[in-house]
User: Fold these one by one.
Assistant:
Number 1:
Amino acid sequence: MGLNKQLVKTLFSVTIGIGMLIAFGTVNVSQFITTTGVAEFKPVLRRYDGSDITVLNSRHLLDSLDKSMKRIDVMRAEWIKEFDMYKGKANRALKHMTSTLPLERVVFNALTRNVTIHIGVAGGSISACRYGYGYLIRDFMQDILSVPVTVNNAAIGATDSRYYANCMGAHMNIDNLDLVLWEFAANDFIKSIGPWAQEEFTRMILSLANQPQLVFVNFLHGAQMKRRPCINNERIASVPISEYYDVPSISMPDALCPFVKKGDYVQFLNEDMAHPNPKNHRLMTTFLVEILHTALSNILDKVESGVWTHTMNVYEQFGDNFKLPKPLFNETQLFLPKCWSALATKRSPNMTLIPIEANGWEAEVGTGINPSRTDLKLFWESKRENASITFRLYIAPYLDLNCTVSIVASSAGHCGKVRAYFDDDEEHSAIVDGRYSYKITKTERISINVKPGNHTITLVALSENPFRLAAIATSYNLNRFV
């Protein structure tokens, strides 16, 4: 059951005043319902008493917002000239718009409380560039809203949704995010993993106490354009997950499909004919701006109709008391994941995966990194057969739950296998194969019932072929959904 259906029943138990607001059409029911009840953990409640509206009026911010929306209209016209294909394509790329209420709250608080907006980018090599859409939307929001906006581009090439569902906390402060941009449609598709990994990531973000706005950013890789399938993972993942969890989803395939099918795709690719070029990133930014435009318009409508304060207070109450619905694709879920990673960005180059003993293993930097990239492909690599490496892990007690432990390989076609075991218990070891036809992260569970406390984990190479260890991750076993 999705958030829409799940919350409809709850509306009958809320106050008569809320019911009257809905009945008289002063609150958009679909938007109101679909953005509540996403917190797995108790968030920090905000309270709105109407003084924020006074601040808006005293600073003439309503006029500023109106002017900002007009500037967006002007910019939209300028982009139509650059992208002769853009006119009429925005609606197609934004078919799965859903709710922007989390973003409305973020923007409103930034304007009235003088707080910084924090953007987080989780993606692969498409996002790990200095001219990427994450930086462009930051600059635009900063210019339009006249508030500080930061971007933490945690994108790392050759990663996927499952890696970030486990390890996003290793790359950014996930408790201080306002807008999260997900970009793995191409890598998940290339790796042929199903929607369960994206759903794990989605639930992890929607469970955050800060309740950030999540947006799916669906790019096409050059390899997909050359074969002209005009598809990525969004049909089997982003679209149903967007509809179920009410997450806006931007479809670059829907925007570029007419060009891809005609073979006219070179104008959107870099020299490597694989990654989107600056023009492609600017086009994606236009779609993100459309989402911002919608949020600004909704703020104005709610403030001018006098329902903003009440709507936001109810939103906060639902966020405090409601839970995520049962998963759409998964039988289990990642619960309080923790990660020790060697992968890094140039902004935060320090690895957190440090061994206590390494015999025949060395820290390596992957090839193919260039100055325009923002990531570092670091990993621990075995150099010979029987090479061993040991790490110390501490798993904090939480209720009565045990943990699942996974290791993440930076895989490649020439890589070998390792044997992994806990606390010198070699009899109960797991074999993990680091070989994969694509050079992309590969997450494998090695134990599903580890008790909290201090542990060691040892990896032993089983051949001369190198094994590349990128991360170790844990999550508590929560096989029930309440």
Number 2:
Amino acid sequence: DETRHYYNLLTSAAYKPLITKPTRITDSSRTLIDHIWTNNLRNTSLHQSHIIITDISDHLPCLTTVTSPDIFIKGYKNITKRKINEENREKFVKKVSDIRESLAFHVNNSQQTSLEKQYDDYFFHLTKVYDDCFPVITRKVHSKTLSKPWITPEVQKLIEKKNSLFCKKKKKNSPVITTKYKEAKLEMEGAIVKEKEKYYRTVMQTTDNSLRQKWDAIRLIINRKKVSGNECPIPNNIIGNHYASVANRLADELPDLVQDDIPSSSSSQANDFIPTQHFEFNAITEREVYEKILNLNSSKGPGIDNLDVKSLRSIAHIIAPHLTQLFNKSLSEGIFPQCFKVAKCIPVFKGSMLDPSLPVNYRPISILNALNKVFESILHRQLTEHLEKHKLLPQFQYG
């Protein structure tokens, strides 16, 4: 018959079946109609085949695991993230409060004459506490799981409960188990609808007032948001060297200019400009630093120090006095700390029609430390006020 002919055809070509039990079971029949074959007959001990008892369809899913370092399983990826939740954040606030005096010592240490070292010691101590309270965890997840963030641990437990009752129902089809299975399935479906609605409502409420973010949230809800992978296949050292050399390569391409090459109109305007107002930075107040920390945009990712904005807000009342002292020392000594000059650079692919293996097709996005933004914002305000007050900006100034 056709089944025997099919079986003989594959076995004669040196293929071996890995699924040998029924995969479609009904009340009146049991058939094996879902197959997995292999032609690697030497290493069949490395293959472990399974039939999953689930109610996804009337066909039981089949799978085979292969132990081999040369095989990459598509769809899965390792996600590394910090365990940030309210419990850990409360722990973080308490620990920072406990080391308040130690942090103040780094700022007021008279034995340490280097302001750079004071910055480094202060943030080293702060980030150490942060790492202890928000540990980094790595887990392997499927892309489908990432696409359904409303599947909470509680919903996952209901899914597992429903699947367990389905297995019992298949083994022993009794009315009691069937009723429990149907109740568990209804409970799971209700929980998914509730959590999904809660997730989308949170997305809408947490967006800023900008119209663009509102529309992005709407597209996500109606499943029209285009998701494009932004993983750069280029090694970090290669793309880093490319970004670091852009300025030098651009300078080499520009012609050398001398004074005679500058248009006369521009030259005369530059020579006629004589600054008459002296500028000095004013001392930064503790309240100003505190308010700037509270006004940080929580939707922005952390910089190279990995300190997230919400956690910094929770300790703003503790670190504001210390940062005020450090910032004022920077103003008096004319030193901008090196730790604020380092940014996390994220390569963003420019377009799907370009070659993803070329560094030139990626746009660098620099993410600065959140506390650096606090310092820069205060300096920006003072400079802007001085320029506008004395009308020092040219009429056609932009940017």
Number 3:
Amino acid sequence: MAYNYVSTVHKPTVVKLSTSGSFVTAGAKNVVTVQGSKLTVYEIQEEGLEVVGEQCVWDNVLEAKLFRPKSGGGVDYLFLLFESEECAVLQWGSGCALRTVSKLYLGEEFGCPVDFENHSQVALNREQTLFAFHFIQGQLKIVKINPDGTLSAPFKLRLEESPIYDFCFVNEDVFSKCKSPTIAILYPAQQDKMVHLKTYTISLEKRNISDGAFSQKNLENAARRIAPAVSGVFVFGDQLISHLTPSEVRTIQISDFTTTEDVSGKVKHEDPSAVQEDTSISAWCEVDEKRFLLSNSIGKLYGLTITKKDKYELKLEALGHTSVPSTLSWCHGVEPGTLYVGSKCANSMLIEMLSAPNSDDQWISIKETYPNPGPIMDFVVTEAAAGSSQLVTCSGWGKDGSLRVIRKGIGFTEVAAMDLAGVQGLWSLKQSDSAYNQFIVLSFVGVTKLLELQGPCTALTL
């Protein structure tokens, strides 16, 4: 009988989800990614991202969010939602281990389940005290976050609208007279198939809902996503971005000839006869209360700014091109501004924002790239030198499609680099009481230098 031995020689690299915050310690700058069955915790360094921990997850993760409980001591906790309709709150523990703070089962025996691939399942309010879940058509579940980060038992809310494209909490400062949580729902009408938005006010004491302060009918038919703004709600469509408040609606077009303002303040329009591109928003993140970053399905990165004088004004600017993202995470507290771009179909990136456009007329610079050969659409096995085999793969799709050669071998990770000209010889040394070589002797013409490898690299001249 023949047996096959199968082993994993390459860790998952397809980034489905990402979130940023202070997860390891208070004040730390971390990025957490979900890559298939692997959960990876990074710390942001000057050179790029450094892995500080990895954990296998034996379930399909639908959502990952970092949030800060009131008694968390300035440290963020990690919330994970699984396809098995379970959720968990994790805390970074000693020895790079993750500790489970709380977990809940949110499943239902009856009801029509939502499509996990095309609909949102969870929303978190800005105050980070409530989660809302959508697993069953026509139903929401509300879960309170306790001050210690644990989750309370959920309660159900019935909705008339079904199906629901997307939902989010509306920031409470939009409604000065309303202190109860408010949720916005994007849904299609059953009669005319038009897309509408409606808000509901949630009573936590009575555990019921009532009509909210505003609603909006007849939005763009292609609108599928909404996002909270300090002054209202954003609705993202294929061609339009709408900003809705109880008093007004503002709309801006997404295209190569987006309306902008020049230095003099006059409105200018680029040639409307230009070839149109696919402008549907695939990922977004918040920079601060007035600035947002968006990316479309061909990897074009936009900056969206909202200002208010007499009325709210929207300004959309093209910043540059990246890989087609599945997730965007703004790294708060990092200077200059840094953005993590996670991708399912191309290399993930760490992007640095520029104060002025570069020679390519882009406002971004790629600081570091993280290879991702997935998804592999097709491959062939060919022979390489010395009788070994290699894979030639068709990787990615769209503009990020590539042909890659993959071999099993030993990889190298650069941990330090120094510019040293004129080196004639190189030797390694160790202290008598150490098991490791921690010094490198560098021979130059006329001088010999000793390089210490512990901590920051420092050269000592002999």
Number 4:
Amino acid sequence: RMAEDFQKMRDELQESFDSGVTLPYEYRMGQLKKCAAMIKAMEQEYCDAVKTDLGKHPAETNSTDLKFTESELGYAMKHLKGWMADQFVKTDLVNKLDHAYQHKEPKGVVLVMGTWNYPLMCVVVPLIGAICAGDCGVLKLSEVSPTTSSVMKKYFDLYLDPLCYRTVEGSVPESTALLKLRWDHIFFTGSVSIGRVVARAAAEHLTPVTLELGGKCPVIVDETTNVETAAKRIAWGKCVNAGQTCIAPDYVLCHKKHYTAFIEHYRAHVKDMYGADPEKSEDYARIVSDRHFSRLSELLAMGTVEVGGQTNPETRFISPTLITKPDLASSLMTDEIFGPILPVLQYDDLNAVIKDLRSKEKPLVCYVFSNNGKHIDLIKKRVSCGTMDVNDCLMHMMVPTLPFGGVGNSGMGAYHGKASFDQFSHTKSVLHRPIGLESVTSLRYPPYDAEWKQNLMYSLTYYKPSAPSNSITKYAVSSTVALGAFAYAFAWPGSSGQ
């Protein structure tokens, strides 16, 4: 019955899409405005729900989830008309009289599969891209944060156009049934293991996917940085949402010069932010489920606890923890941690660090704390990652002109700002030629009896494998060739010259 219901929902959305209702600018802008009104209306109830599911302070929910999503909305509303406009491109000499441009068209009916750690952001930001592109879609909410998902569904169903956007709650059976259907794009945020399941399902229909996954995001702290500031920013980036963030620092590679100082500064900054007993702090979140709490608790024995290490299974509390001498073969160092536990290792050779990072899966983010431009440039060029942050953590997310996404094992595709619009659009290339001036194209037709005709055509049409040349000289030569071609075409025996 579930499969039949989902297929019926999919067919209804296809019917709405085929009607063209989502194509006008006015419709897309109207839905964005409804999203903005929805976020305002649900703010208090949403913060309360996140507090129930994650123990998160409303101020943190506001800044890292609600306000971030509102900012994305504002940016999209400001730029939507320009994104929708055709983008004209340069042509070669043969096509000088043609119009060549890229036209953005909606992909169709899409599936957005959200996650639980930043529930609103991970659903609505992709939805913004789908709305801007003119798609219809289904929003699958996470069952791991049930209170929050219930609030989201209530407001989504109240504010979004039900003819074009539907919301689904549920767990594995619902997700499995949805993935069996044919979609025009699937956007998934979650773990690498489930990302593989989504990719396999999409492959059955050759459906394009955006996979926002994760991995182990390294932090390099070199000998030239201000280690106190670095420790503070890393502690904040790690402890936001109790470390349950795909871009949270996963482990630190600290130069031996700063190793001891880093540990002490980290300890001090955790105390400054959350007090001597973080369990009593209203500002510190909790682990989302008993399963995740059990997994994280086991990691505490895989090294030497230098900071924190306290737990409370009744409230799913794990204190901000720093671990030294981690077992490199353990899951602490092989799997994404996704919690408030931070291993730290020391190094003395940056090239050895880079070599080691290159041997591992490509991370979603690589953080670098350094005042040495050569070190920064070397890491930028030699360490492949989705994003690179220099001297801060998480803050690249606040720049809408920086696409966010992984590479390799950390994901594929990128979004935020215009990149979200592009992910849910198909770029259609259009060449519009005048029907007249047929004599100009006569060079291309058989019979191929005159070699000079073909050589002239090639010189006008094809780019040559050569180094950049002087633009003035190139323009003079190409103009001369073009004039000769037109003169030849109009003088062609039997040609009408039209």
